[in-house]
Amino acid sequence: MLNEHAKLISFFSHCKEVVGRKRLQKMIYILKKCNFPFSERYQFHFYGPYSEELTLRVEELTNLGFLSESKEKKSGYYQYRYGLTDEGKKFLNHYDFQLDNIDGIIEKMNGESSRFLELVSTMMYFEGMTKEDVEEKVLTVKSKQNYTQDELEKAWDFIGQVKRAN
Amino acid sequence: MAYRDEQLNEEKVFKDPVHRYVHVRDKVIWDLIGTPEFQRLRRIKQLGTSFFTFHGAEHSRFNHSLGVYEIIRRIVENFRGHADWNDEERLLCLSAALLHDLGHGPFSHSFEKVFNLDHEDYTRDIILGDTAVNRILQRVGDDFPQKVADVIGKTYANKLVISLISSQIDADRMDYLQRDAYFTGVSYGHFDMERILRVMRPLDDQVVIKASGMHAVEDYIMSRYQMYWQVYFHPVTRSSEVILSKILHRAMHLYKGDYQFTLEPHHFVSFFDENPSLEDYLKLDESVVMYYFQIWKDEKDPILSDLCNRFVNRHLFKYIEFNPNHQFGQWMELHKLFTEAGIDPDYYLEVDSSSDLPYDFYRPGEDEERLPIHLMMQNGDLKELSRQSEIVEAISGKKRTDHKLYYAADFIEGLSDDSEIKKRILEILEG
């Protein structure tokens, strides 16, 4: 029961807190692309890979009391902060699976901005194309973000590192 | 004349219960409708197993795809002449609208979950692969199939084109809400689409709604909310989806255990082996799946046979509300009791959550999470819908999740009345 939910709870047990829904979306996507066993289905949206399933599952976990959610007002928009509750920790005790090697990748992602994670996840979305084609595609679908060549290079390095880490 | 500009000598019309008529004038669109890949959509139901709950819900993805095409045809007609609209994109929009669901498989949602497939991948593969659809799109231009695939995959450069087919107020949703309401017979799902189409405006890279049309959009959001709870999340439909998934899991389990099926499941083999080709995928429609279920009713394996009987004869699982947090202990106990009673809990006990279903609610979202619906105020400013509409704001904040426990009630009833196991199971299930 709720195996897929439990994997998300396990993720939160490793990263303690996630600030921003967009950030959460991109983190799970990047982990998924690094072969961590998350099953949430992603599609491409205006702001990169997005999973409605993940959004709803997190809402369920919040309603069940396994995750805490607080809403903070930012200039012109709201930002959501998520953390694991004691109930969530208790629930996780019923499950026996490990997300090995995830800590290092989470730490790396935590050190980066949401804008950067958006770039990385978008590049990973076009995995399978040549490097030149990925860059061209990213600059086309993300034209408003004005990503620089330096950022693209940094993102390639980042992808190489997180993929090697698992 | 270039193929892309070719018009039929006479306009073709399809009678349609939702839009009255679907009009086709472009030769390309007419040819696409005639392809085997598009005709296959006649054999894929739009609402999967909902017909078990709403007997009218037998409409197909073919109907819906034509409906989305017709809405887009009207929108681009209205957009003609607007500064932010490039009419060169017209045929691309029409083709993408028509083909947007091309990759759906039989009972697509459950099927995709069990076999870990994604219909969007198949839509792209059909458009770009060795198919009749691809050959027609190629005649328009070498890069045209890729453009159509990019629009449907939401990675096309012009986001305005994407948002017509896929956004929080798009032709896809406007068609399926009305169509599903019509065929299920419910009185929700109706809204003034004509009004919405009149107040839609292309602006930069998105579609916005003139503020004067806010109430029509409120109605659309309300319809969407009601349809989710009353039709899409209906617990009886979910029960049939649970059984369908269990059948597919059981058949795969048996196949992998070298079970000898009475009828070799040729159409499923590559799915069980997790490497279906595009050809395999296109061959497996709902008629074929139902044929196998009919045959499997008489299989020697008692679980596969029982589950298929349940599905074919609508002998569904019962359900109760369930809170996985507060009732986790009961879940563990039920699992144990079912096993002791000889009822395999892997096939006859299941918790189903709303996130197991593919439908979504309107989400105002936070910054850059998902593009919301924007109203264009009289002074040209854009405002997010829920900031202007109290009705939408109220719905957006509502709890939208639930969990149900499904079980084979008849098996429990069949246990001896003296059985302590039966008494305890009923105690838990009946509270």
Helix content of chain A: 55-70%
Topology-level CATH name of the largest domain in chain B? Hypothetical protein af1432
The count of DSSP E runs of length 2 or more, i.e. the number of strands of chain A, is: 5
Tell me about the biggest sheet of chain A?
3 strands, antiparallel
Fraction of residues in β-strands of chain B: 5-15%
Q: Tell me the radius of gyration of chain A.
A: 16 Å
* Parts with pLDDT < 50 across at least 5 consecutive residues of chain A: none
Strand order of the largest sheet of chain B: 3-4-7-8
Structural class of chain B comes to: alpha+beta
Could you state the order of secondary-structure elements of chain A as H and E? Answer: HEHEEHEEHHHHH
Tally of helical segments of chain B: 23
User: How many helix segments of chain A?
Assistant: 8
Helix content of chain B: 40-55%
**Alpha-carbon Rg of chain B, integer:** 24 Å
How far is it from the N-terminal to the C-terminal residue of chain A, by CA? 27 Å
- List the strand order in the largest sheet of chain A: 1-5-4
Tell me what the CATH architecture of the largest domain in chain B is: Orthogonal Bundle
- The mean pLDDT of chain A is 90
- How many structural domains of chain A? 1
> According to CATH, what is the class of the largest domain in chain B?
Mainly Alpha
Q: Would you mind describing this structure in some detail?
A:
The complex is a heterodimer of chains A (about 170) and B (about 425). Chain A is an alpha+beta fold and about 170 residues long. Chain A has one domain (about 5-165). Helix content of chain A is about 55%, strand content about 15%. Chain A is built from 8 helices and 5 strands; from the N terminus they run H-E-H-E-E-H-E-E-H-H-H-H-H. Chain A has helices at about 5-15, 20-35, 50-65, 85-90, 100-110, 115-125, 130-140, 150-165, and strands at about 15-20, 45, 50, 65-75, 75-85. Chain A has a 3-stranded antiparallel sheet. In chain A, strands 2-3 form a two-stranded antiparallel sheet. Chain B is of the alpha+beta class and about 425 residues long. Chain B is built from 23 helices and 9 strands. In chain B, strand 7 (about 375) and strand 8 form a beta hairpin. The longest helix of chain B has 22 residues, at about 235-255. The interface of A and B includes residues 5, 44, 74, 78 and 137 of A.
